Amino acid sequence: MQGIYSKKTMIKTAVITLLSVVLFSGCGIQSIPAAKNDVEANLAEVTNQYKRRADLIPNLVQTVKGYASHEKDTLEAVINARAKATSMNIDASNLSPEKLQEFQAAQGGLSQALGRLMVVAENYPQLKADQNFRDLQAQLEGTENRITVARQRHIEGIKNFNNLVTIFPTSLTAKYILKEEKLPQWTVDEQEKQQNEKAPSVEF
């Protein structure tokens, strides 16, 4: 009789252990923190690529100035937009919709200013033929591509995290155990709006 009870106890223990493993593997205890780590890593890559772009701009402005020094408005707009963009910092652990929107608007403003600078450069054949300018232009284009890829990864990471914290059953773990909430998402509309805004006016 004791052997039967012992066998039942072992089976019961095994079932409870199995159910616990299944429950905890699907409740988000591990997946939610892992997803947040991915979001933070992806955001770090986004900001790294934006910094790479900002680091290219001083040399680009100086090169353009050598051939088109009288294009003061355009050059000054790029300098001001860069200053604003580099002054904006975002923290993945404290990322509000407002802060993300401000950061996105600043980076969009710099993209717009750079676009106008490249349009101006088209009017100067000697500048376009300058090897340094061509190298900087190629580096800038490559960086813009990296920014796009990094932003897409960050967007997907946020989407994955937000799904975990809003969809049952992981939403229960997020709300009551980990105290996690949805993260703000990048918006394409804001980027498109930046492209249509009037370029900053500069007084000399």
Polypeptide structure, described:
- The protein has 204 residues and is mostly helical.
- The protein has one domain.
- It contains 8 helices and no strands.
- The chain has helices spanning 2-26, 31-67, 72-87, 97-121, 125-129, 131-166, 170-177, 188-196.
- The longest helix has 37 residues, at 31-67.
Summary tags:
single chain; 204 residues; mainly alpha; disordered C terminus
List the helices and strands and how they pair.
Elements: H1 2-26, H2 31-67, H3 72-87, H4 97-121, H5 125-129, H6 131-166, H7 170-177, H8 188-196
Helix pairs in contact: 2-3, 2-6, 3-4, 4-8, 6-7
Q: Show unreliable segments.
A: 18-22, 190-204
Distance between the termini: 98 Å
Instruction: Provide the domain count.
Output: 1
By oligomeric state, this entry counts as: single chain
Outline the biggest β-sheet: none
User: How many strands?
Assistant: 0
Shape: elongated
Structural class: mainly alpha
The H-and-E topology, N to C, reads as HHHHHHHH
Overall average residue pLDDT: 85
Strand content bin: under 5%
Instruction: Tell me the radius of gyration.
Output: 26 Å
DSSP helix fraction: over 70%
- Per DSSP, the total helix count is 8
Give a short synopsis of this structure.
Helix content is 79%, strand content 0%. The chain has one domain. The protein has 204 residues and is mainly α.
